[in-house]
Amino acid sequence: MSSACTKFLSHPSPEAKSLKEHLLEVANKSKEIFKKSKFSDDDTVFYAGLLHDIGKLNPYYQEIFAQPTKDMQDSKKQDMLKKYARKHSVFSARIAEGLLAKLDMNEEKIKRIMMLIYGHHSTLRKGLGDKSDQKLNATRDEILKVLPEFFDEVSKNKEFSNLDWDNCMKKFRRPFCFDVNLESTDGMTDYVKMGYEFSCLLQADRGSFSDWNTPNFSVQFSTNKLLKQGMLSEIRTRFQEEIAEKFDESKGMVVINAPTGIGKTKVFLDIINRYSRDDAIQRIIYCSPLLALTDDFEAKVRCMTNEKDREKILVYNHMKSSNLSSDTKDEDTKDEDTYDDHRWNFENESFNQEFIITTTQRLLMTMFSNTAKDKIKMASLQNSALIIDEVQTIAKPVLANLIQIFKIISKMMNTKFILVSATIPHEIEKLERIKISKDVIDDYLDQTKKQISVMDKFDPVKIDMKRVLVMTNTREKASSKYAEIKEQHPNRRILYLSSGIRKKDRKNIIANLKEQPEYILVSTQVVEAGVDISFDNIYREEAPLDSIIQVMGRLNREGENPNAVLRIYKEDGDHAPYSKLEFDVAKKFIKGVSNSQQMYDVLSKYYEEISNKSEKNKESADKLCRYIQGMNFNEAWKFVQDEISNIEQGTVFIPDEQEWNKVKNDLLNAVNNKGGQNYKKFVDITASLPSSGVNKEDFDEDLAEHNILLPKKERMGRIYDKDIGLDILITERN
Fold first, then answer.
1. Ordered structural domains, the chain, with CATH
2. Which three-class secondary structure string do you get for 597-656?
3. Does the pTM of the predicted model rise above 0.90?
4. Model confidence over 652-674: pLDDT tens digits?
């Protein structure tokens, strides 16, 4: 709590500190975090921290902060909103502009500081102002009255006394509509540096309400549990031993080319064990493009760690942010736009944990998003090792720029990048790669050899029975194929998987398949990777080669079936959801292959042709590069969002009928919890809507107001089919 002589507060009770104390604390912490990097000029983050909340001289905040109880604070808000603007960042940026004029600081640096301050509760962007209105002007006038009083309070501190208070008060009345245009000397480096500065400020500010320390990675894994017995165990061991021998943890970036099924998870964890001996590495971050892969990795990690180490492991995806311990209690989170509640989990939201299991999409959000809630994680990439699994799935225009950003981060922030891929696209072809002996790869590909044939048309009547996978490119096609096959084989075991099946049902289906001698599974790409099932025959709709190779890893997985066949069938020629170029070029190469070894052999030529022909990819990559070099954070993020956008329309909660009332109440409680929302305990009952959209009449109105989709109890059977889940909505539409 502030002392009796302190007039100005930074936050409400019970976290209240003097505004001066908070500003100094954030300034020094921002500088401390920043100095861990090799970037120069820590003045920018220091002054951004020193002035980021000075706009809280706004009487709206000061009157509320002075109230001793939460109820009194809430009551006061209503009165204050009638007179004053609930804003502080815009005032902080304007005050900073005036105060910094006296320092030996060029105009460009002042602009950057203003951008950091203005965006610290919203987004990093060039627009720095609001249209003037009565409340805004009234608030400005009141702040101007108390600025001299605040100066008297802080004038004994040299950090404040050196600032130009006279200039600030003289220019403070100017209109609030103003933008900045940054001039970059080294566009991509400046872009990365400013994102890092923003993250340092955010961590210093948000972390000021928590006792936290930067971690040192110490988790150990018992990877012998991953050793498989069987025909391929000797080859997998040779592969793993070669990686262990040739991997150099001092390298800033390295590529591991690992054919699907060769045992890369053990490779990851053996490498991670080595980093636990490196005092310079503070955390490990594992990223994968699919929740199926992160789920699989999470399950393996769980069984190889003790309870104490699980507490150091964070699982962070779109549904949950929680430690991998047996503790199932909900954790508080916080919307960064609220000023009066700091009961969120800072260590999780800032990635200040020893080991993080997350998605590639989350990594891209950290790199490119200009929002405070995403960018706060960026500073935690320093002194870390990142394993990026299936890196070839990242959109090519984004990947080309991402590699350049990785190089800068590696150099300036001591970050190690391990890029893992079953295939090597053109964008990473020239990066340093761990050389694996040709005989190891050849032996593995020979032992897991699959026959490949191309079919002009899929015929459900002629499906070879045993353990069969039929994979389509979209959920609409999958639901249609499922109906066709059911009609032709009414006495067979026919199963269905897509993201429209709720997660716990998917888990049960996959677990039961391992025990079944005969079945047909109709699926979308949800079993393309991260599913430890070996099929005898696969029917795959034509697709880009890297996608076909992924599903090929589910065929004859242990090398026990020399007659395993992958049949690539033609459908309607529609390339969705893939790029037309990759889809069309793949069709050309598929015609010339008859087995899996030949498929791997043509990959480099396939990627080369795509690279040579893809003017669109080059133009898109150049466009993103221009946004980055122009420090246009908003447009860069919009571009990446378009490239990584999910075609699914939303998450739906599908409880068992007897649990419906309890789930609704729990969801409402999560919404009403002012600490934020955390849906960790609901993950297993979620499924994704198809692109056909939502009929609002089908969903509970109380939750729909909060953008939460729970089918009405009486409509559960219509929304979620026992066989095809939410994809029943597609069949109804058609």
1. 19-206 (1.10.3210), 223-436 (3.40.50.300), 440-613 (3.40.50.300), 651-733 (no CATH)
2. HHHHHCHHHHHHHHHHHCHHHHHHHHHHHHHHHCCCHHHHHHHHHHHHCCCCCCEEECCC
3. no
4. 999 999 999 999 998 888 777 64
